From TrEMBL:
The chain crosses the membrane at residues 120-142. This is Cell envelope integrity protein TolA. Keywords: Membrane, Transmembrane, Transmembrane helix. The lineage of its organism: Bacteria, Pseudomonadati, Acidobacteriota, Terriglobia, Terriglobales.
């Protein structure tokens, strides 16, 4: 062995450190294999160093041994550092940092390939093979684990279980349909009874017979409905079990249950129309003992009166009151499942991949933590926006649309996104920098310098998508394009300019008179849909606002901020000072010079140094998703309620979610609006 060089010393230290990395959970046999490969690397490396100085070998072979040994000596510190970083990151639950460390391991191995430029002897092949085997073992340990047979069986059973609950709800749906039809028949039967003449003994006999038949029919009808209700409450019990709330298809079952109970409530609106109370009162008076003007005998009148008071009226009262305890139980179930529904939903994150650019990660929410999954089928990202196409509204498993602002080249791409798994697919590039696109009404415009994009279903044509883009190089402006189902696009010939440094764009279309409680500015808004566009700046305290073909900057609550976000009721801003929101109503009044500033509500309680909000997404389910630039770089989710009356943002304790990036968006479980609608209607009942 030649004299030890600094590279040899570094190699030995790095190899020793690598063998001391704590790969928690690694199979003992796999760990033993990795250590034996590491020992083989050391032996073969020393052999390669010796042969690099062996004068008995020709110059080309010695050179090959030297270059390979040098490459391994340089690569091993990076491999060791990456292994340490990956082990620590995954231990803390930071999957993104772990993935970046794995990328560092792979990057460290790349230079070794250069050692194969010429003929390779057996010794060189052995040392290279050993190091690749060792690295492969590390990557296999950190890589996605294939589910065990037991896990596969468990998932299959969970799927069968969910399908069983959905099948039960399908049966309940059929039962409610039959019940609805029977209610319509009952209404017609009651109307026919109330219209019967009561002039003869035969009329009285028919009246009493029809009331009795109605009573028997209602008893039979309710028996069938009770059987369906029993199955409905069994499904409700399944939904309330905590262990079921973690299962993949739990939101789908919850949505189907909500659909069916709303279906039942809709059917029960017919109960109030079964009979006119005035008609019942008229019939009671007509058959009363005191009505001596009746052509019926006193005894017959009494029999008919008894049929009204003890037959028809109790039936109507029973049907009207029957569902009050059911509705109370349904409300309890809706309230109990809401927290679990808030935990669920689809999280989509744009995060840096080493130093190369931003890529896409997705996760399905779980109470016991979420695992970010890297999606490889998008381009490098500048920003993204996910929306629910109009045609998918009401679906329990909708397909979302993602509009991505991509880099290298700058372009706007469209993807479909699976609402549960988050897999983007059917990607197509809609616009690309340097290309000309038609204007609506004639002419063309070049697409250039796009820094961010946002998208919504078009409010004029629900089959189209409205894409808002921010452009910032040389001069700053906003564009709107409409994308058709066939992926053709046209530009709206409107190009408002902004101040320098435009970086973010957000938009919403909404009747903002439908505001939060206690909003002092709601009454000043005109009714109807408003298209509001917001622009965030890189280095300014202002926020750009456009509405009704006019635009102006309004002040944010701070001297500077990191970004903006929107929900149905508020504009949000976030940065090193925390987070803040202002109702859209007050922002518009400020834009119109009716207020000096939007009515900002800031959140600072418990804020601490170093927690700089890097990204924020307010979700329709009442949660906030926040990426911090705190030292550990993490994603957090509190529940959020904006209290306008007391000018306060109320947040529950922050839950750590792992992952980090410059942009994030959370989509609620598809049934969330249905669940909220059910609760609202039950509270009114």
């Amino acid at each position: 062995m030649p004299e030890r060089t600094p590279e040899d010393i570094q190699f030995e230290k790095s190899l020793q450190l690598l063998m001391n990395v704590q790969f928690e959970g690694m199979d003992p046999a796999e760990a033993q294999f990795m250590w034996s490969e590491a020992a083989k690397i050391e032996a073969e490396y020393k052999d390669a160093r010796t042969k690099a100085d062996d004068k008995a070998l020709d110059d080309a072979t010695r050179k090959q041994f030297k270059e390979t040994a040098d490459a391994i000596a340089k690569a091993l510190p990076g491999i060791t550092k990456g292994a340490f970083s990956a082990a620590e990151a995954f231990k803390k639950g930071d999957n993104l940092a772990g993935a970046a460390a794995i990328m560092d391991i792979c990057a460290s191995v790349v230079p070794i390939f250069a050692s194969f430029a010429g003929p390779v002897g057996a010794g060189v092949g052995a040392v290279v093979g050993a190091i690749f085997s060792c690295v492969g073992q590390i990557l296999a340990f950190f890589g996605p684990k294939q589910p065990s047979l037991g896990e596969q069986i468990q998932k299959m059973l969970e799927t069968i279980e969910a399908e069983k609950e959905l099948a039960n709800l399908s049966g309940i749906h059929s039962a409610i349909n039959i019940y609805t039809e029977e209610l319509d028949k009952t209404r017609e039967e009651i109307r026919a009874i109330l219209a019967l003449p009561l002039n003869t003994e035969a009329d009285a006999d028919k009246f009493r017979t029809d009331v009795k038949a109605l009573e028997i029919g209602v008893i039979d009808q309710q028996g069938q409905l009770n059987a369906a209700a029993f199955e409905n409450w069994k499904v409700g019990g399944w939904l309330k079990l905590t262990e079921n709330q973690e299962k993949e298809r739990w939101p789908e079952v919850l949505g189907a249950w909500c659909q069916e109970y709303i279906h039942l409530m809709t059917a029960n609106t017919r109960l109030n129309c079964l009979a006119n109370p005035k008609e019942i009162a008229r019939l009671e008076a007509l058959t009363s003992e005191s009505n001596t003007a009746s052509p019926l005998s006193k005894g017959t009148r009494k029999l008919v009166h008894t049929a009204v008071v003890e037959g028809l009226k109790p039936i109507l009262k029973f049907l009207t009151n029957k569902f009050k305890p059911w509705n109370n139980e349904a409300l309890r179930l809706a309230k109990e499942t809401s927290p679990a529904a808030q935990e669920r939903g689809l999280y989509v994150l744009m995060a840096p991949w080493a130093s190369y650019g931003n890529v896409l990660y997705v996760a399905s929410g779980r109470k016991n933590g979420i695992g970010w999954d890297y999606k490889k089928n998008t381009g490098w990202l500048k920003g993204f926006s996910i929306n629910v196409p109009r045609a998918q509204l009401g679906s329990l498993t909708p397909v979302y649309e993602m509009i991505a602002c991509e880099d290298r080249p700058t372009s706007i791409a469209r993807y479909r996104v699976h609402s549960t798994k988050g897999d983007p697919y059917d990607g197509v590039r809609l616009m690309e920098e340097g290309h000309q696109y038609d204007n609506i009404g004639g002419g063309t415009r070049q697409f250039a310098n796009c820094v961010d994009a946002w998208a919504l279903p078009d409010f004029e044509d629900p089959k189209r998508t409205r894409i808002y883009t921010a452009h910032s190089t040389g001069y700053n402006y906003v564009n709107i394009h409409v994308a058709n189902a066939d992926n053709t696009v046209k530009r709206i010939n409107w190009e408002p300019h902004t101040a320098a440094g435009l970086l973010h764009i957000r938009a919403l279309v909404r009747d903002i008179r439908m505001s939060l409680p206690d909003d002092p500015d709601a009454a000043a808004m005109r009714s109807g849909l408003h298209e509001i566009i917001y622009g965030g700046y890189r280095s300014s305290r202002n926020i750009w606002v456009a509405l009704d073909n006019s635009w102006v900057d309004v002040p944010s609550p701070w001297d500077g901020y990191n970004g903006i976000a929107v929900d149905a009721y508020c504009l949000w801003v976030f940065g090193s000072k925390g987070l803040a929101c202002a109702p859209h109503t007050s922002v518009i009044r400020c834009k119109n010079r009716e207020l000096p500033s939007p009515r900002w509500i800031t959140y600072t309680t418990g804020w601490h140094d170093g927690f700089d909000v890097n990204a924020l997404s307010p979700c329709a389910d009442g949660t906030l998703v926040v990426c911090s630039t705190q030292q550990d770089r993490n994603t957090w989710t509190p529940n959020c309620k904006v209290n306008l009356k007391e000018q306060r943002i109320d947040l529950t304790p922050w839950e750590r979610r792992g992952g980090w990036g410059p942009e994030i968006q959370k989509m609620p479980v598809p049934c969330w609006s249905m669940l909220q609608s059910l609760k609202t209607n039950l509270l009114k009942d």
